[in-house]
Specification:
The complex is a heterodimer. Chain A is mainly alpha-helical. Chain A is 73% helix and 0% strand. Chain A has a domain at 89-298: Orthogonal Bundle (MetI-like fold). The longest helix of chain B has 37 residues, at 170-206. The chains are: A mainly alpha, B mainly alpha.
């Protein structure tokens, strides 16, 4: 097990190294520098600015410096906000994104599991169809469409919630709902399919025959077994939360990582773009690693061996 | 007595022609079964019809009126949707009027607010008092309805879905945008399919060292989140249809390759493959003639789910400003412009948002239908 974890962490570091290298050289291909035409700098001043960013060195030296910085958690200095290290920018903005992502994931998954559970219990009944419709809509309709709908109806027309910006808990409600639709719908679909299958299996019949109460069957015997495979869809959920954070933070003007990324793209702020990309990559790879490890722990049928995973 | 009753119950069976050997229904091939199951699924069939209509409209739609995709004219910018006949039905949303509620301390003040909002075209604004107010701040409320088309002296003009901020016809742009979005999705899905099937097929069929090498490469690629790759590619490449397709296909084929490899490995040890080989079929023939048809179901299902993914990613990229650039339109760029005007001109967002949702739902339902259709357990 320890060997397996070490091997996976090694893989993870190699992947991150590849991504860092890839993004470094891709960014070098692009035009654009921290200099801009409005400042009207003399050539000496330009040289000083370039020196500050280490852009006077040959590219291999820059590359080594960049990797060296990465190891120490230094992602470089932003082009757009001069003198601000990218790490500081990201640290400033991680709060709202993390809060939003956590709220959406937790509330979405819980609601989704409940929805799937209700659907499975009333198999082929009215509630089943209703929750299936919700699940299909939730997985199909893009989250920015939901965000627009929520913003228009509940903020602009009914004025129940603030239209945008970040601050109190009320500000986070609409973005959370928009962001949680996909995890919710995915979980609902998954739990329903699994529950229908589990509830039809022999050990449930045995439990019934032994006189276990209906709630006991549904929750203790059914749900516990149906939840295990849910771990596998956390990956797609994580992706949807990341893409979602870019779009939804932009729509609701929330000062998070996603919004920073989109704004950096607009102004060609390469160090920030690279830093954000690396952070997204690290987050995603980390989540996948945790899922794989969890999966081995939860489901005893899956034995993690040193061989093929 | 009792004996008699039992005797009555036992009626001698009439001699009939031998029917025991008759087959109750004609035997069907797997594909016929699949087709039957699919067409029994009403949702999938409705989605299929909807999608065909949308595809036809995406070609025919732009030509249905004589506004071009990039006909800019600021004098007719931000016109609301107006459709003949429907314009007379006040709740249809196609009446060609703008309306909103305005507040003020008194009715007059609210009215002044309304008039100044609608370019001071007083004679074309209908005012309806909702709340007289009591003189306190923003207590009075009026509903103003602005007849834009009359005010601009364009009563004979119809912009079915209105115009955008540059005065371009939304109907034309919507269908042109749909063409672009669908085109990107279909090409990306097709290329992913080709690469994925070839890669997975080779790895699965030859196995051994080839498989080892190909799978290690794949493992590294899968480890890199596709979102990151797509974003990096979009930054480097010039924005446009080709770069979106490239960015989407670079990561899109890996899922297909894994599935195809697994299926091929399962199928290649079956007797029919052995038979074909014994009869001297070349590897290429075995793959294309025997293996591919047998795994086609899973390939089709996977592709059907790849298409809506591609549509979503295209819209997402265009939305965050990395996708299609003006004057070209895609559903993503239209939605992006719509968001900029959501409070004052919601119609700019509504139509592209509805269309992309319908397309995504349709593709997902067809995908679900196909998955059931290719599942032997669902055949009746």
């Amino acid at each position: 097990m320890v060997r397996y974890i070490l091997r996976r962490v090694m893989y993870m570091l190699i992947t991150l190294f590849i991504i860092a290298t890839l993004s470094f050289f891709l960014m070098k291909l692009l035009p654009g520098s921290p200099l801009n035409a409005e400042d009207k700098l003399s050539e000496e001043q330009q040289a000083i600015v370039l020196e500050k960013y280490g852009l006077n060195d040959p590219i291999p030296v820059q590359y080594v410096n960049y990797l060296g910085g990465l190891v120490q958690g230094d992602l470089g200095i932003s082009f757009a906000f001069s003198n601000t290290p990218v790490t500081d920018i990201l640290m400033d903005r991680i709060g709202p994104s993390a809060q939003l992502g956590a709220q959406a994931l937790v509330v979405g998954t819980i609601l989704g599991v409940l929805l799937g559970l209700i659907a499975a219990i009333s198999h082929n009944g009215f509630l089943d169809y209703t929750s299936t419709v919700i699940a299909v809509l939730g997985t199909s309709i893009p989250n920015f469409v939901f965000a627009g709908l929520l913003q228009y109806v509940f903020a602009a027309e009914l004025e129940w919630f603030p239209v945008a910006l970040w601050g109190s808990f009320e500000h986070s409600i609409l973005p959370t709902i928009a962001l949680m639709i996909f995890p919710m719908a995915t979980a609902a679909r998954f739990v329903r399919t699994e529950m229908v299958e589990v509830l039809g299996s022999d050990f449930i019949t045995t439990a019934r025959a032994k006189g276990v109460s209906e709630p006991g069957i549904v929750f203790k015997h059914g749900l516990r077994n149906a939840l295990i495979p849910l771990v596998t869809v956390i990956g797609p959920m994580a992706v949807s939360l990341m893409t979602g954070s870019m779009v939804i933070e932009q729509i609701f003007a929330i000062p998070g990582i996603g919004e920073q990324f989109v704004n950096s793209v607009m102004v060609n702020d390469y160090p920030t773009i690279m830093g954000t990309t690396l952070m997204f990559a690290a987050l995603f790879i980390g989540i996948i690693l945790i899922i794989d490890l969890l999966y081995g722990l939860i489901d005893p049928r899956i034995r993690i061996s040193g061989g093929d995973s | 007595m009792e004996n008699k009753e039992i005797k009555d119950l036992l009626v001698p069976m009439k001699q009939k022609e031998d029917t025991s050997e008759k087959i109750s229904s004609p035997s069907r091939t797997f594909l016929q079964d699949a087709r039957r199951t699919f067409f029994k699924n009403k949702l999938a069939v409705v989605s299929m019809i909807t999608l065909v209509l949308i595809i036809i409209m995406s070609f025919v739609g732009p030509g249905m009126n004589d506004h071009g995709i990039d006909d800019q004219d600021l004098s007719r910018a931000k016109l609301p949707a107006r459709v003949p006949v429907l314009e007379n039905i006040s709740w249809s949303g196609f009446t060609g009027v703008l309306s909103d509620e305005f507040q003020g301390d008194t009715v007059e003040q609210a009215t002044t607010n309304a008039i100044s909002r609608y370019s001071n075209q007083e004679e074309f604004i209908d005012i309806e008092v909702l709340d007289e107010g009591d003189g306190s701040r923003n207590s009075a409320e009026v509903k103003a309805t602005y007849h834009v088309y009359e005010a601009k002296d364009m009563q004979d003009q119809y912009y079915w879905l209105g115009t955008d901020t540059l005065g371009r016809d939304q109907w034309t742009r919507l269908w042109d945008g749909t063409t672009v979005s669908l085109l990107i999705a279909f090409i990306a899905a097709a290329i992913s399919l080709l690469i994925g099937v070839a890669y997975g097929g080779i790895a699965g069929y030859y196995g051994g060292k080839v498989d080892d090498v190909l799978m290690r490469i794949l493992e590294v690629l899968v480890g890199i989140p596709n979102l990151v790759i797509i974003l990096l590619m979009m930054l480097v490449l010039d924005p446009g249809i080709t770069s979106i397709v490239i960015a989407l296909t670079i990561t899109g084929w890996t899922g297909m390759a894994r599935i195809v490899r697994g299926e091929v490995m399962k199928q290649k040890n079956q007797e029919y493959v052995l038979a074909a080989r014994t009869l001297g079929q070349s590897n290429w023939k075995v793959i294309t003639k025997h293996l591919l048809p047998n795994i086609s179901g899973i390939i089709i299902i996977n592709t059907m789910f790849n298409i809506p993914d591609a549509i979503f990613f295209e819209a997402f990229l265009s939305f965050i400003g990395l996708g299609i650039t003006p004057p070209d339109a895609s559903l993503g760029t239209l939605i992006n412009t719509g968001f900029d005007n959501i409070m004052l001109y919601p119609y700019m967002l509504v139509f592209p948002a509805i269309l992309i949702s319908v397309i995504m739902i349709a593709f997902n339902l067809i995908g679900d239908g196909l998955r059931d259709a290719f599942d032997p357990k669902m055949h009746k």
